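Explain this record to help learners:
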Amino acid sequence: MSKIAEELRERMAKAVAAFKKSLVTLRTGRATPAILDKVCVDCYGQELPIKQMASISVPDARTLLIVPWDKSLMPKLEQAILKSDLGLVPNVDSGNLRIQIPLLSSERRVELVKMAKKKAEEAKIAVRNLRREANLDLKKLEKSKEIDEDTHRRKQDEIQKLTDQVMKEVEQVLAVKEKEILEV
């Protein structure tokens, strides 16, 4: 019985972690190597993320420095960044790529907040789906007479409390990201 609750807790934690990871890729006015996590480069006959073919550092708050391990891949790196939907323009600087993170316009900030809210809603939907699955598992246990009705009700309340707790965590993470995006 506690196996259902433990598995649910673990799966909900994974949903929140995935939500946090998706928020990291949203570009704010601050430089962070995670911005480039989704950008892949076609090299050696396969698609590789930039972090697997170069070191990415942050020399200052609005600059990313990419130092490729194989300098011959510089044009491909540059093209991949330009083609990404990040709106970043890399500058070749003595065998390295420098990316200046531009300040965001107020319209772009509002757009990014909407994207963050959409990702939060997706995370909440995932959590609600996990709750529904756990409740169905409880119902099956009750029908097979493994648990009685009172235990079923009590466990259902526990599942709801856990769901509420996770929903609150998603809201808190969203609030922090919103503040970060809207910060000038």
User: Anything to note?
Assistant: The two ends are 50 Å apart (CA to CA).
